[in-house]
Specification:
Blueprint (H helix, E strand, L loop, with lengths): L2 H6 L8 E5 L3 H7 L4 H22 L3 E8 L7 H24 L2 E6 L7 H13 L6 E9 L1 H17 L10 H5 L12 E4 L18 E4 L9 H13 L12
Parallel strand pairs: 1-2, 1-5, 2-4, 3-4, 5-6
Helix pairs in contact: 2-3, 3-4, 4-5
The chain binds farnesyl diphosphate (FPP).
Length: 247
C-alpha cells in the first residue's frame, strides 16, 4: 500500500455506509483452471480484509451481497459450498468481529436457509447485538424487489390492523419497513468484476448512492482498491437532484 493513497483520503468526509456486490469469484477461479468454489473461498479472504479495513477507517455501516434470491438457480454443489463458506467465515471470525465491536445483521429471508448456516448466523447476531462500532449487514437470500414487496406487505398489514392510515405513507415511513430501516442509505456502492449492473441489490436504498465499478475480480479486491473507491467517491459532486449554490 503506498502512503500517497492513504494520505489522499479525507478522513472527515468518509462515506457512512458502503455497500459491496462481491462479484467475479467464478471468473477468477476459471482463469486459474480451478472450480468455482475455489473462487468463493478466495473471496472470503477478501471479506475478512475489507471488514477489518472498513472498521479501522471508522465507517459505521457495511453491507455485503453474499447470496441473492436468484442465486438458488446455481448448482446444488455451488449453493452448498457458499453456505459452508458462510459457516466457515462465522466460526473463524466471530471472536475477532465481536472483540472489534462489530454488530452482525442479516438482510434477506433467513428462514429459507439450511439449518446449520441459519443457526450459525442467528448465534452471531445474538452474540454481537449490543456492539455498535461497525454494523455489518450480510445480504443473504436477499433481493431488492423482495425487500420492497415485503415492506409493502408489512405496511398494508399495519393499515389493516388500524395502526396507520394509507395517507401516512411517505418515503421515510416506507423506509421503516425495509430490512435496512436502521441504516442510512448507502453513500457508496462498489461492484468489482466489470459488470455494470445492480443485480437486484438495495433498489430502494440506492436512489442517490454513488457507484464505483472496477474490472478487478472480488478475490483480487484489496484494501488498496477500497481506498481508491473512497478517494474517487470524495471527488464526486453529490447534488441529490439540486444545483450547486454558485451556479
Ligand atoms: C458473485 O461471484 C459472488 C457470489 C454469488 C457469492 C459471494 C460470496 C462470498 C464472497 C463468500 C461468502 C460470504 C461471506 C459474507 C462470508 P460469481 O460467482 O457470480 O462470479 P462470476 O460472475 O465470475 O461467475
Amino acid at each position: 500500500m503506498s502512503n500517497t493513497i492513504i494520505k489522499e483520503i479525507d478522513y472527515d468526509r468518509l462515506p457512512k455506509h458502503v455497500a459491496i456486490i462481491m462479484d467475479g469469484n467464478g471468473r477468477w477461479a476459471r482463469k486459474r483452471l480451478l472450480p468455482r468454489k475455489a473462487g468463493h473461498k478466495a473471496g472470503v479472504e477478501r471479506v475478512k480484509e475489507i471488514v477489518e479495513t472498513v472498521g479501522d477507517l471508522g465507517i459505521k455501516y457495511l453491507t455485503l451481497y453474499a447470496f441473492s434470491t436468484e442465486n438458488w438457480k446455481r448448482s446444488n454443489d455451488e449453493v452448498s459450498s457458499l453456505m459452508k463458506l458462510l459457516v466457515y467465515y462465522l466460526r473463524n471470525e466471530i471472536k475477532t468481529l465481536h472483540s472489534n465491536q462489530v454488530k452482525i445483521k442479516v438482510i434477506g429471508e433467513l428462514s429459507k436457509l439450511p439449518s446449520t448456516p441459519k443457526q450459525e448466523i442467528l448465534d452471531a447476531i445474538n452474540l454481537t447485538k449490543n456492539n455498535d462500532k461497525l454494523i455489518l449487514n450480510i445480504a443473504l437470500n436477499y433481493g431488492g424487489r423482495q425487500d420492497i414487496i415485503r415492506a409493502a406487505k408489512l405496511f398494508a398489514k399495519d393499515v389493516n390492523d388500524g395502526k396507520l392510515k394509507i395517507n401516512q405513507l411517505d418515503e421515510e415511513t416506507f423506509n421503516n419497513y425495509l430490512y435496512t430501516s436502521d441504516n442510512p442509505d448507502p453513500d457508496l456502492l462498489i461492484r468489482p468484476s466489470g459488470e455494470l449492473r445492480i443485480s437486484n441489490f438495495l433498489l430502494y436504498q440506492i436512489a442517490y448512492t454513488e457507484f464505483w465499478f472496477s474490472n478487478i475480480y472480488w478475490p483480487d479486491f484489496s484494501k488498496k482498491h477500497l481506498y481508491q473507491a473512497i478517494i474517487d467517491f470524495q471527488q464526486r459532486d453529490r447534488r441529490y437532484g439540486g444545483i450547486k449554490d454558485d451556479k
